[in-house]
Amino acid sequence: MAHQNPGLNILEIGAGTGGATLPILQSLGGGEAGSTPRFGHYTYTDISPGFFEKAKAKFEKWGHLMTYSTLDVSTDPTGQGFCNGTYDVVVACNVLHATSDISQTMSNISALLKPGGKILLIEETVPKARHFPFVLLPGWWLANDKFRNDGPLLTVEGWSNVMMENGFSGVDLCVEEYPGASFQSGCLMTSTAKSPVTGPANPGDVVILGIDPLGSVSSLSLEAGLRNMTGVDPITAMDSDEVDVTGKWCIFLGGMDRSILSHLTQEKFQTLQRLLSRARGLLWVVRHSKTDLESLGANMAIGLARTVRSETGLQFATLDLGEREAMSDAEAVRHMLNVFNGVFCQTSQLTQNDWEFVVRNGNVCVPRLIDNNALNLSVQQETPDAPPQLQPFKQDRALRLAAGDGRGLDELYFTDDVSRNGALAEDHIEIQVHSTGLNFRDVLMAMGQLQGERLGQECSGIVTQVGAAVSDFKIGDRVCAMSPGSLSTFTRCPASGSWAIPDDMPFEVAASIPAVFCTAYYSLIDLGRLTKDESILIHAAAGGVGQAAIIIAQSVGANIFATVGSVEKKAFLMETYQLKEEHIFFSRDMSFVQGIQHATGGEGVDVALNSLSGDALQATFECVAAFGRFIELGKRDITTNSRLEMAHFNKNISFASVDLGIVREKRPQLTKRLLRDSFKLFVDTNAQSRWSVTTLPISDVEVGFRALQGGQVIGKMVVQVTDDSMVKVHPARRDENLLRADASYMIVGGTSGIGLDIASWLPEKGAKNIILVSRSGAKTETAEQTIQDLIRQGINVEVCRCDVADKQSVEQNLVPLLARMPPARGVVYGAMVLRDTLFEKLSFADYHTVMMPRVHGIWNLQRALTTTNGSVDFFVSLSSAASFVGNIGQSPYAASGTFMSALAQYPETAKMHCSTIDLPIVRGIGYLSDDQKREAIAKQLGTESVDGTEIRGLVTAAIRNEFDLSCGGHCVVGFEGVKSTPVNEQPFWVTDTKLSHLLRLSTLAGAGELTESAQNGTEIPPAVAVRQCKAREGAEAIVGIAVLNKISSILMRPMEDLDPAAPITVYGLDSLVAIEIRNWITRELEANLQILEILTSESIPALAETILKKSGILTSDLKAEWGLDVVEGRTGQE
Known about the structure:
Helices cover 34% and strands 20% of the residues. By secondary structure, it is of the alpha/beta class. The chain has seven domains: 8-193, Rossmann fold; 206-365, Rossmann fold (3-Layer(aba) Sandwich); 389-512 and 704-729, Quinone Oxidoreductase, Chain A, domain 1; 515-690, Medium-chain alcohol dehydrogenases, catalytic domain (Quinone Oxidoreductase, Chain A, domain 1, Alpha-Beta Complex), CATH 3.90.180; 744-975, NAD(P)-binding Rossmann-like Domain (Rossmann fold); 981-1018, no CATH class; 1029-1122, ACP-like (Non-ribosomal Peptide Synthetase Peptidyl Carrier Protein, Chain A), CATH 1.10.1200. This is Carrier domain-containing protein. Keywords: Acyltransferase, Multifunctional enzyme, NADP, Phosphopantetheine, Phosphoprotein, Transferase.
């Protein structure tokens, strides 16, 4: 029932402690994150409210889907606040027997159910000795029915009789506790609430079309069955032109033994148009032969029916009887009558919107689209956007740290390190990384504020490879290095940027030295020329570079002045490096200028090592003495091209900037000397005894970056690879040699769009021979360029100009090519033509043009392959989601698409491993990307779009035969996004029961049934929660809490410590933190804000309002409440 109607309204009677409730809810889903419930609402009742408090706690996970009410079912429910005819299912577990009048009870339940609704009844049906204690209680003898004189229990037969007398069908299903009558005690029974017959009842209402005069279908049996159902004789005819079908209910049997839609003449096509425009309702019956591939064309009726229903609302049902060899005519007639009765006579509301029926294993089934998590994961693993998974850092493949597209520190993940694929350069060494030093430069790159993707600038580890020209190192040496990209498993760098480390030096200490000590040494000694008794100002002195500079300055006997950002850091410098308290200032404001001037008698310092920016940089210039040296380490003013006050240079001041990356890249010998001198000084001064290193496991690299971002680090921070390190890793791509080098692979429609994109990708999977089939050949510049690129890779490419819909063209052009090429082992079939028109206005020529390449083309190609090849490893058909939903104006396209999906499930094509992919809109490539008008029409599909990488992932899964294992060869793509579609934006197929369960979340949103997590915006995406809001205040609250939660996470401060009413400046956000918040707002809330708008917001609610006014997630109702309108594609205020 839940499969058929995922919006079930369920009532449980006498639920008590919920013993039956729990397994029902667990089966129906909705209690866990990401689990879509297959029911709409669950009403939990009992005669006493005493059970409800514990039940609410027990079923808390389903709380947003449940209500609790008292109900005495033995009396009229309408007088207790219940409405008749509103429930799909009533559940009663060992409770109904306890009512005094069982007939009245069942009558009350029947009234509560919708027509066709079900009762699920669990009852004791056989008296047992264990019942004896209850005999002594008054409740055992409450029954006043004449047929329950000996106690309250009824046999199965007794229950069936009571049901039939009170609006039910009797016992439809009985599941016994144990096999064997002697063991029986109770059972589970189901029954159906009777429905009035509302279908055909007038003479001449029913017409049977397509009757074979030879009687291959038992037409007499069908006629007799319809006569019994309606009380009148049906009209029979071979053709709808032989009888007036206007306003009549029709059963069409013309597709029973042949594929008429694939072989229509113009006259028959026009007859079909008249039938579908005049009939009141139509049941089209199809079946096929297991030995005749072309008989699958009968399934085109399913796609045609979908589109005609979308265009006209015609009650157009289809019944697929399956293989004709597996079913007798009598059985076929029985199924026809049952479906006709259920659809057109409205005997059950559970089948109101079901129009597609398939007989499988003797049962009539209906289709539903379901999530395929295994296939989704497989496809994601083939795309760059695959979500990272928690995996061990140590594994067979080499990994490197990468930043996510959103440029947030919470998006860091590890992925394959392709830099290790090539040969090692002759002057390089390769190092297996043990520890990596973290630098502020890495934070800037991770957030997109500095160019570069290679995170990690320095490391230590063991040499694993040595270039041919390297003599200083050998495999197994312990080394440290300046090596961009060293947040990785292995790193490669010039030998000149590496240094052997002492055996007694820990890897984490060695990894902390190269960047900061070489920077400080180059700045103070090479550029600053710092000497004894000179003075130096060191900004951010408690950091890594700052402490290195202190150690170097003390080694030459200089007088040291320092700035820090906190009292704790000041105390650290005084205790660790014995700096004078009066020589340490704070850099949060400009007061350090006065402090320096006072301490130096107004002269200033000889050397300033600056890492401040903006006004603080200009202020530092005022602290430099005549003939002084200003050494700039920061990047912000340089990248923004800020100005310097030139008047300072009147004092013979020199200015220099330091970027150790440029030194490493452009001056390898200088780099080597800096490493040598830095390590010598580090050892000679016993710096390790004072050197502050904070070590984190590599799994906490985000924590380290956030600490650097927030200025919370004293000294140097290093991440260390440990045996148990678990990190977020992009799934490994598989099957690099999925395809055979000694085979050919064919793409039909391969010289343009999706086909050409797939052709360019096949060599990545091992293909060496590619056949591109196209009606027009490779005419475009893009096609020619792609083919030349393939040839340069050593790929044998053959372009076959051939119309696969034309059998003669296939025999003349393609068959000879197949004969001389290596055996064809796989096909990707993407041939298509579009002619979008409503079916009633569609010309036969356009119908034929669209249908031929997708139906006859496949028949012709499979015959050619059978003749020349025998079989193939895969045959992947690229179809469209338009076929699945019946897109308006695309009837022949949808019809041919359902033929393609039937092909994937056809037993005789199993040896070709046929599979079909129903694609939504494709971004950037393909037919739609070349025609904006067609794209606008296709958007009414209401699906998400996919790109080329996702299509490649789908094709890869199909080649691996994963479709066969998980979805019967047929995969439908792009409908996940409709789960969060607002009610007022739902697509045209909203009532299609194949898909209606996907709209469960948006249905809840329309009803305003928000869970607590949706209200506070923390457990579900805030955009989803906002779309569920009906009022402006609710949307502002959701966004405000989400923003506050994000700020709390970034600052690593409890939310309780943040005052939402305070100005944003109170939180102490710097521009880097604001950038991350802005990027998060853009990604999660679809609003583009300036940094200044964030930093100058008066409060969290004010910021939330600003975000929402610029956001693309507002519903039309909320836009109206704010006075917003859509102007030239953007949201603006009137």
